[in-house]
Amino acid sequence: MERRDFSNPLPLTGLRVTDNFWKKEMELVRTEVIPYQWEALNDRVPGAAPSFCMRNYKRAAEIQKEKREKGSAYVPQTWPLTTFETLPKEPGRLDGRFYGFLFQDSDFSKWVEAVAYSLSQHPDPELERTADEAIEIVCAAQREDGYLDTYYLINDESAIFTNLRDNHELYCFGHLAEGAAAYYQATGKDGLLKAAERFASYIASQIGPEEGKKRGYPGHEIAEMALMRLYELTGKREYLELASYFVNERGRKPYYFDVERKLVCPPGELRYQYNQAHLPVREQEEAVGHAVRAVYLYSGMADVARATEDESLKRACETLWNNIVRKKLYITGGIGATHEGEAFSFDYDLPNDTAYAETCAAIGLVFFARRMLQLTPKAEYADVMERALYNGVLSGMALDGKSFFYVNPLEVLPEACHKDKRKQHVKPVRQKWFGCACCPPNLARLISSIGSYAYTEKEDTLFLHLYLGGEITAQAGGRQVRAAVYSEMPWNGAVSLECRSDLDEPYTFALRIPGWADGYELDAPEGTKREEKDGYLYLTRAWKKGESVRMNIPMKIRLVCANPLVREDTGKAAVMRGPVVYCMEEADNGKNLHLLEIGADEMHTAAGRDAMGEHFIGITAGGRRRMADGAEEEPLYAEYRAPDYEKAELVYIPYYMWNNRGEGEMQVFTRVYG
């Protein structure tokens, strides 16, 4: 890879988010989601599935204390490692074993990461004290050699690293490292960071290419990008080397997952597509398998490519990115079309009513997009990141922050969810919590760190990837560059940027031109050098304090159709305005949404208030409803005749807002006439 200065996210401690839209979401996470999730991690939410997360850490800490006290006289009690999830045989009666999903440790790590990001924007001594106490419990559970995974520490330490394919030790480590790094950066406290580093060193002592080590790699990826974060924070090369090893070893034959099971793979047979381990990563040309695992892997690949300047790895990332966004991406930014394996399906298979589109997968796509932007600042990456954020991510959480979607379909008939086993993964209402609770804390950590996705910087350039209002402090060759961004997104395309530093040397602000934009209007100081490249407008000058740029991006309503090879959407279109995807709900349009059709030229904006009283822009459209009166009395099949229609006004709301007014039908794609 040609050596270049890559961009990096702005430290959240040097950024204050003031954005009207996202600040509201961040406050919701701070005041509602983070406290609620802490109660859930401690099994104190009535009616919600128990987590057992903090209970497991406390139990593991008890075991470590007992080992220290008894020394050589300590005799471990073991429990069977036979189930993916362990629940009490009798509710409320627990013995000494591990409970919950085997990856339950990661729920704490994502929670503490969200806490860290929240503290960086809003200091809260009480919340920080709660986090410190939780961290003390977690660190007390760590073994002296650095190993820290309560599933094995409680159940059977002799089985550590014996099932890398399925038992999520490296996944839990990855989230621990991410949370630890974030908490250190926010508070300066390194207790959890040291624990994560000890765990990383233990992993490196057991897994790798050297003689006597296991030549394995994670079954569920995330350790790759977590190790890269540790490397970027500490500068310790062992973390880069381990991350590179995990990326480069993956998919080589003999498959390590076969070695674990003493299996032999016939020549020419590919296995482990579910884990993205069927081929070496540079030979993978299609996104396959579990969608969350995939985008976590691709994010780690991009990080390693950037750090090592590996052109072949960068090309592999581009190939996989293109396959996703050109053939496997929902219009909402969701990925993973099938509930079978929570996975990518084949090209152009994007069913609306059985879509899986896990919230975590959309979040992982945001991770991947930001890293692709760091490699190469192209607006197409930011376009997808923006689409996922405003639609496929936010839909995962209710407007009050108290219930969540794991699955994000594009069409819902509640009766089918209740009666059709093929659609039982689709929930018509959000859930309070999940036994497998990866999505809620993942949402919390992403929303709390939204600023690190909006802006990146390099030596002489500040990139605005998302139009997010905020006060920014960047660095340029040892100089401090301060700026303020004002934005009315996603409801209005008015954006302005004010420089709050006097700069003697030329400096560049790079503003993204959204792919959905039909032109833009710009007002910049006279003499500013302008250049458009890869969807960014580069504005360069020796800026003076108080100078500003104003940009207006028209936000027309658009009917967007899918590629003709997407069979489910033939003859249909979705409504979009700016980055926001819209949908119809039964609450506004009545039952049998499938009988409605939209006119191509009859769409208008309408100001509204959501269920929490917040302003939003809705859309009304002229349309028609197919008459179906008396249909229950007609034969199941009859000779074709042109249907009768009645005029109808269609009401659309932002997709992320659906199901905040009770159970009912919903659909994104609508038949078009005219």
Provide an overview of this structure.
With 674 residues, the chain is an alpha+beta fold. It is 35% helix and 18% strand. The chain is built from 18 helices and 23 strands. The chain has a six-stranded mixed beta sheet. Strands 2-8-9-10-15-12 form a six-stranded antiparallel beta sheet. Strands 17-18-21-20-19-23 form a six-stranded mixed beta barrel. Helix 1 runs antiparallel to helix 3, helix 8 packs parallel to helix 11 and helix 13 packs antiparallel against helix 14. The longest helix is centred in the first third of the chain and has 22 residues. The two termini are 51 Å apart. The model has no long low-confidence stretch (mean pLDDT 94).
Quick recap:
The chain is of the alpha+beta class. Helix 2 packs across helix 4 (125-140), helix 3 (105-121) packs parallel to helix 6 and helix 6 (169-187) runs antiparallel to helix 7 (191-206).
Q: Tell me the major beta sheet.
A: 6 strands, mixed
Principal-axis shape equals globular
> Which ranges are low-confidence, i.e. pLDDT below 50, for 5 or more consecutive residues?
none
Mean pLDDT: 94
Helix share bin = 25-40%
What Rg is obtained from the alpha carbons, in whole angstroms?
A: 26 Å
In which order are the strands of the major sheet placed?
1-6-7-11-14-13
Give the distance, in angstroms, between the N- and C-terminal Cα atoms.
51 Å
Strand content: 15-25%
